[in-house]
Structures are given as C-alpha cells and as structure tokens.
Design goal:
Strand order of the largest sheet: 2-3-1-4-5-6
Helix content: 25-40%
Number of domains: 2
Bound molecules: guanosine-5'-triphosphate, magnesium ion
Largest sheet: 6 strands, mixed
Radius of gyration: 20 Å
CATH topology of the largest domain: Rossmann fold
Shape: globular
CATH architecture of the largest domain: 3-Layer(aba) Sandwich
Order of helices and strands: EHEEHEHEHEHHEEHHEH
Structural class: alpha/beta
C-alpha cells in the first residue's frame, strides 16, 4: 500500500483549484478569474489501485495587504510542512521566471519534500514556449519531474497522477476509500455562494465578501434542504451593489448558487440569502475569527 500527502503551491490565479477539481474528477474548490479566490486549505482524496493520494489546494502566494491575507499565508505555510510532494504550479503564459515565482522557487527548495513543477494552461501557448520554460526552470532548481498540463481541458492530469504515485512512500491509507474531501456540506454551500459573488461582482466588492450559512435543514422524508445564508460585505455601498437594482444581482447570485448546490449535494434546495455589512472585517482580527478560525 502507498499513500502520499501532496500540496499544490503557486501564485494566485495559476489554476490550483482547477487542478484540484480535475484530479478529483468533481468540483470541490471554487474557481474564478479573479486572483485570491481560495482562502482555505482544501483537501481532495483520491484512491487509485493500491495508492491513496491526499491533495491540498492552498491560497495563492502573495504579499498580504490585510489580516485576511496574512491568515491565508499562514494557511499556506501550515500546508507545506511535513508533506511528501509539493506541486509548484506556474502559468504557461509567463515569459520568464517572474520575480514572484523566483521567490517561490527559493521557498520550494527549502521544503523537505519531493517537488514537481507543473506548467498549467498549456492550451494557451505554443509548444516551443513550454520547452523554453522547462529549460529556464530546470536550470534554476532540481525537480523530480516537470509536467505540462491543462487543468481546464483535463490534459496531462493522468500523467501527473502517475508521476506522483511513482514517488510517494509505502504507507497505510489515512482515509476510507469513499472519502473524497475534508469539506463539510456547509463549507461547500458557503464557498459556492462566494464563487457566484466573485463571478458576478467586480472591483473590490467580491474580495470583501464572506458567506455564512445560518441554518441548513433537511425536510423530513423529502430530498429538499432549506438553507439560509448571509453574505457579509465591508461597506454599505457594497451592500447596494450586491443587491442590485430591484434586487436583480442578489437574485442572480441566488439562482446560480442554488443550481450548483443542488448538483453538488444531489438534492433540491430552497435558498434564502441576506446581505449584511461588517465594516472592514478583513483587517479586524476579531471579526476575521468569526469567518476564518
Ligand atoms: N486556459 C486555461 N485557463 C485555466 C486553466 N486552469 C485554470 N484556468 C483559469 O484560470 C483562472 C484561475 O483559476 P483558479 O483555479 O481559480 O486559480 P487558483 O490558482 O486556484 O487561484 P487562487 O485561488 O486565486 O490562488 C480561472 O479563470 C480558470 O478557468 C487551464 O488549464 N487553461
Ligand atoms: Mg484557488
């Protein structure tokens, strides 16, 4: 039996969560085109033959601008210690090793784990460019493997998993074969609503949003959940934007969230959303604790 803990590291927006979902074969982590989408460490567990792989998706490595950012960076640090493999994810569109990625290279060198460089979004570039990146990075650091993939198009994922299986240790499994994530249904609901906010809102508004499920109850003898959730934002003006003219934006957030939650939980959902202001919560240690313990 083999088992391995694998952490996915990289800059915001490189496709870490898309990769986690591709590996899991189902949606576990939320994805958006805006940087700093992921705020927590999120696990996906896959069991293949005699191997069990436990992947952890992490927030993008960035310079924190508030206490939430600092908390996210702590989460990244906690997720990189004691693991067997680090997947360092970069964007194939990079023209060179960016200064931010240079720093991550140094960081990865200091972690006691096997490391694989994963070049994502290869669907957007020419093959020659991928070869250039491979050369640049292999001159900079020793990797067990360098693997080009497209997480979006599910290209190269099987190869990546096979390479990981080759380098993980003999070990008993840590999870039951039918477990696939550490996320609770409540977390999945909160994150799904936050994803719709990220996708439907612009500028600073979605970054200042936190979602909290107030109650989640299954109706007896029915495949139906009643879910009440609050969307918190940082300013009064943001509340107006989230609700929209005649409530149209909030309605859209609710409809899209409900459709996804129904798919993920395989049940009908009656979703009610409220919007509240929690002034400057991202920079207030006490308020932050309410959302991110
Ligand atoms: N073309 C292309 N786009 C991709 C690929 N993988 C991810 N994306 C897109 O890149 C954007 C960011 O994806 P995420 O998975 O949210 O990125 P992330 O690294 O988790 O970002 P943070 O959570 O903010 O750190 C989304 O718009 C994805 O659809 C890929 O292989 N090809
Ligand atoms: Mg992410």
């Amino acid at each position: 039996m083999k088992s391995g803990f694998i952490t996915i590291l990289g800059r915001p927006n490189v496709g870490k969560s898309t990769l986690l979902n591709a590996i899991a074969g189902q949606k576990i982590a939320i994805v958006s085109s805006k940087p700093q989408t992921t705020r927590n460490a999120i696990k996906a567990i896959i069991t293949k033959g005699d191997s069990q792989l436990i992947f952890t998706d992490t927030p993008g490595i960035h310079k924190p601008k508030n206490k939430l950012g600092e908390k996210m960076n702590e989460t990244i640090k906690d997720s990189q210690d004691g693991v067997d493999v680090i997947l360092f994810l970069i964007d194939a569109n990079d023209k060179a090793i960016t200064p931010a990625n240079q720093k991550i290279v140094e960081r990865v060198k200091g972690i006691k784990a096997k490391r694989i460089l994963v070049i994502n979004k290869v669907d957007e570039v020419k093959k020659e460019h991928i070869l250039e990146l491979i050369k640049l990075y292999s001159d900079e650091c020793d990797f067990e493997a360098i693997i080009p993939i497209s997480a979006l198009k599910n290209d190269g994922i099987k190869h990546l998993i096979d390479e990981i299986i080759k380098i993980i240790p003999e070990s008993p499994w840590y999870y039951d074969e039918d477990e696939f994530t550490d996320q609770t249904e409540r977390q999945i609901v909160e994150e799904t609503i936050r994803e719709k906010c990220l996708r439907l809102l612009d500028e600073e508004v979605p970054h200042g949003i936190a979602v909290e499920v107030i109650s989640m109850k299954k109706r007896p003898r029915k495949k139906l959940y009643d879910i009440d959730a609050t969307i918190y934002c940082e300013r009064k003006s943001h509340k107006g934007i989230i609700i929209g003219k005649d409530g149209v934006t909030l309605k859209r957030i609710g409809e899209r969230s409900r459709a996804d939650i129904e798919k993920m939980l395989d049940t009908k959902v009656n979703l009610k959303l409220w919007v509240k202001v929690k002034e400057g919560w991202r920079d207030d240690a006490n308020k932050l604790k309410e959302f991110y313990k």
